[in-house]
## 1
Amino acid sequence: MDSEKIKIGLETMLLLRAFDDRVGEARDDGLVPGLPHLSTGHEAVAACLADILTPGLDKVTGSHRSHALALALGVPAKALMAEIMGREDGTGCGMGGTQHIYSTGTTFLASNGIVGAQVPIAAGAALSAKTLGSGGIAVAVLGDGAINQGSVLETMNLAAVLRLPILFMVENNGVAQASATTKMTAGIGAVARARALSIPAESVDGCDYVALHALAAKMIAYIRLQNSPALIETSVSRMGGHYHGDKQTYGASGSMRDPITNIMGHLKSALPDEAEDLYAAYRKSASDRIEEAYQFALSSSKANAGTLNEISRKANL
Amino acid sequence: MSRNITYAEALGAALRQAMQEDPSVILLGEDIVGGQGLSGSGHLGGAFGVTKGLGGTFGLARVIDTPISESAFTGMALGASMTGLRPVVEIMFNDFVTVCFDPIVNQIAKTRFLSGAKIKTPLVIRTTMGAGDSSGAMHSQSLAHLCASIPGLKVVMPSTPDDAASMLLAAIQSDDPVIFFEHKGLYGVGGNIPNVIKPSPLNKAKVLRGGSDMTIVASGRMVGLAEQAAGAVESDGISCEVIDLRSIAPLDSETIALSVEKTGHLIIVDEGAARFGVASEIAAQVQRRAFGALRSPVQMIASSDTPVPYAPNAEAAYLPSEEKIIHSIKTVRD
């Protein structure tokens, strides 16, 4: 990967990290009403998809752990932060919150509070792309816990028989809430299950932006060309527990490799003299942007009974 | 100009017109083209033939046979509705909504609200309901009340071919999710529908028969029973007003309350469960709107609080009937 691409990846990942770090602080300060599930350690997946997918044309759905994904794929940081903080200027005017981020006009479509439920919704975006001939594809980002949900397995079969242009991106962080994935999953996992349905599938280190990017680009090109599904299983670190503040008394959680450390290694190899300065500059810029989003959210009105009435009316409830 | 066709054909005609008028309308469901991959397949048009011929006219990209995976294809329909299509999903029997209740309850019902009303979800779930043919406990229920209790879902139940066609067209044109209940026992009923179907409101009940002594509210196949009972007691000098509910959610309690203010008595006939059901909700709403007008306790005739039994005599005992309605009418009169 050329150094320009690595720089883009690092810059994006630092922005995503700064965002969820700020969400965690806001939660500690009592300004996030719900329990946020942070993406810390998952940033390479979101950053790769952001670099490879075509904005607006392709559509991505994510799990309850989707702050980074939404931000990377075009949801404005201000609206995202405001939603997580329950404010009127949020993506859902404060009605959705941290686990229910919806977007129009960006590559990000929706996140979900039900494990795996985002997967058939992504299949619907793939069906639209195929039926309307837009040339777009869909990506369902799901966790390792979701691969034991019936709707996910059903959707993999459905996507194969209907030949839908969809990538199943499985982020395997080794823990399904508080249970070890290996204990809860029979057989050898998502890749083998996809291959059993004749869906091309590969696994890759999701802490290695460069390796993940190469595989994702290959699979996405395949999906566009063949108009049929593929699957990637990528190992990531759940660096902040299941939710922010999770004491992890259940004894998680294996390796805590940081994808940002990894991509810095790539950058240092490519640009040994500039890497540290670039890192510092990107961090500063990310921190400034996120602080601006946070201040915006803080100044936005708290959603209230009036908001509830207004959204209920607009949604024809 | 009109045509005399069956309820099932009226639904097919509405689907055909909607698909001709709007290329974003697609159909999804099991065997709706007509089975796949077997010799002679392709002409079934679903278990009840409603979509017969549509696959041939509009092609397999718009009329899509799915695997038996209700959860996946119902969730897929939502995603499609969020991204430019207007899917019409067929769930073969309403008993199967339970296997796709996450997409229906958590996803389809909530997306518009959770997006701050910025995302539209124009999708229709057509499903069959109702007992009377010994299909047994898992192919005969009437589960409209389950769906009607979820904010974000519109639930309709037409009782005539004309309403079936005009309400289905309206449901497809709506930007809100609509669950469309079709009683299996009505599919063969004939009626006139216009050659060019016009959409009709999804939130209005209809007074089918004027009367002064009491009000009978019914929906789906129960409407016919209510009309028969009203006709049967006419010779006894009892004048019943019969209201076809048409829409379960939203509930047109205004039309019902206006009638009750005139008649003072209310009988509700519903094929769903008696407990926590549609009839209970109507009773609650009417007592709020027209408490002063009620001169007797509201009568509720619903199915037994049991699973639907298989044996014909037991099934008949389980269901509301003309006799049960007449009995209630006389109870109210006396």
## 2
Amino acid sequence: MKRINLKILTIALAVVSGSSLYSEDIGKFALVIGTVQVKSESGSWSNAHVGLAITEKMQINTGMKASAVVALNNGTRLKIEQATMISMDAYKEGNFGSAADVNLKQGRVTAFVNKIQGDQANLMRIRTPTMVAGVRGTIQEVSHDPERGSEVFLHESQAEVIGRSGHINQVPEKGELSNDGRGDVVTPEDNKNKSESVAVTDQSMSKEERDVITLKEDPMFSTNAADVQMLIEATEHAAQQFGDFGITLPGAVPPSIQRL
Amino acid sequence: MKIMEKKNRLKLINPFRGFINIAAILAVCVSFGTLGAQEENQPKWPVITASNPASDIEAVRILMDKPVVSYQDLADLVVIYRGEFNSYKSPEARIKRTADLGFLKFDGISDPAHTAMPRGKLALIFHKMFDLDKGLLYTFTGVARYAHRDMQALSILEERFSDMDYISGGAMLGALEKAEKVENEKKNWGKPAPDVREGLE
């Protein structure tokens, strides 16, 4: 009897420890051209192949004249161009839909995000060292190199780009937005909405403040519906504050008109 | 007359005046010498670390993190871009290959792995690697300065730097990608743009 109990205990322990070590697959490689390597959170670099499972925190690196297409579980596809380094920082699925966070260190990625279905949303962010680009139901190209900074090109639909100080910029369809290495958002000459460009660098801000505003622990990846509601309310509150200072956000109604 | 008398008196009073002057001069020389020695001990900017990657993708990863690239890195990039890394495994072979291709002369560079490469040389290489529009001055002279101006005009290299400035590994990779893009645009001028949905759906 004691032996049987010991066996059950051993199996139970193995299952528990196994489940804690097990990292869930969030997608797989749909296409690999040339040399593409991956590195898990606690591993070394190894070659990628079609069908290889992708896990959270995995780093993907493409070589020269190489590219790869990654298919995430929510139907989102990421095309990773040559000499690019990305990491799949976060991926969550819940009642709200799904949310993915990709960190682009260098190179170029094109994201094709499935459109919103019913109440559910497919949220995706591509984060570069100088900005965060939100992709929702669009085809969007994001690139970054340390000298030129970050560039966003919208092939379809439109997107919001948040600078390091939290200012939001709308990028129209076929529009382009660049964000240089110093953190200033500038639209190129061919961007129709030049007046929407704003400077986002605020040297007085500490790193912690920036993290709070743009990066760390934001409710975007929460599976709780209340957090998503809080995010919406916070955005509306920010728009109202802009209105108080006489700054009109695209689509927002100036307070003077509201009073009338 | 009185002044002369005063001077003569002072000479008598201070017989070590000449020695004091010599000592002062010596002290100044010694202090300068010490400062010079201190400067020699400090590392000279920029500090470039040499690397010998085992594969082309590893070389790309190393390049991404390099704050300043060397002549060796440039030769590596040329060989990697041509897909010949496995044929030229040693750094010396890659330097020789780049020189043999006629892309760059490495004369006078004794230690290419530790010698910082100016942007003008990268511009020269881009003119050799890609079919890009050449300016009149570069066509006549073929010098790095005007090659660099051409790259700036084509938005391949940033305008805020000169041809003698150095470049980081990440910026060099970004510039290479941009040069390739500009060449493709030139080649495919007038043709319909490739479908972005290709391979994504």
